[in-house]
Amino acid sequence: MLLNINPLLTGELLKRLDEMGHSDYLVIADANFPAHRLDPDALEVPGVDVVQMTRAVCEVFPLDADNPPALMDSGAGELPQVQTELLEAAGSTARTMVDRWAYYDLAQGASVIISTGELRLWANVVLYKGIPYSRA
């Protein structure tokens, strides 16, 4: 057993996060997202919402300063509340908005897709891995 590790971060998930390199990315997806079609090895966390999962991942996952979180564009003028919550959980105010169909194409290149039990729409985020130390 490890100390101070969020219990949502399973051994398999930690292993896959650790294996990712700089600027590799992951998707944390809602229950409506076609996670297993895009990645047969998608990890399931059905009892968790996307905000909880994003917060847990960001406890151990350095974000890439050059690639802000990517959200699926809902086409609405304002961000849906869940997307605002996702950015807060990631500790980011910057974001990239991606068209729905282009988002699915982007997700196919993810190192990891985490499928949550989130039922709200537009509740998906792409996070790019940064480096765990500052650049000199």
CATH fold label: RbsD-like fold
How far the N terminus sits from the C terminus, by CA atoms, comes to 35 Å
Largest sheet: 6 strands, mixed
For the record, the count of structural domains works out to 1
Rg, Å, rounded: 14 Å
Name the CATH superfamily assignment.
RbsD-like domain
Strand order of the largest sheet: 2-5-1-6-3-4
Q: Which shape, going by the Cα principal axes?
A: globular
User: What's the architecture in CATH terms?
Assistant: 3-Layer(aba) Sandwich
Q: Count every helix, treating DSSP H or I runs of 4 or more residues as helices.
A: 5
Q: Assign the structural class, choosing from mainly alpha, mainly beta, alpha/beta, alpha+beta, or little secondary structure.
A: alpha/beta
List low-confidence stretches. Answer: none
As a percent range, the share of strand residues is 15-25%
Q: Count of DSSP E strands?
A: 6
Helix content: 25-40%
Identify the CATH class.
Alpha Beta
* Average pLDDT taken over every residue: 95
> Oligomeric form of this entry?
single chain
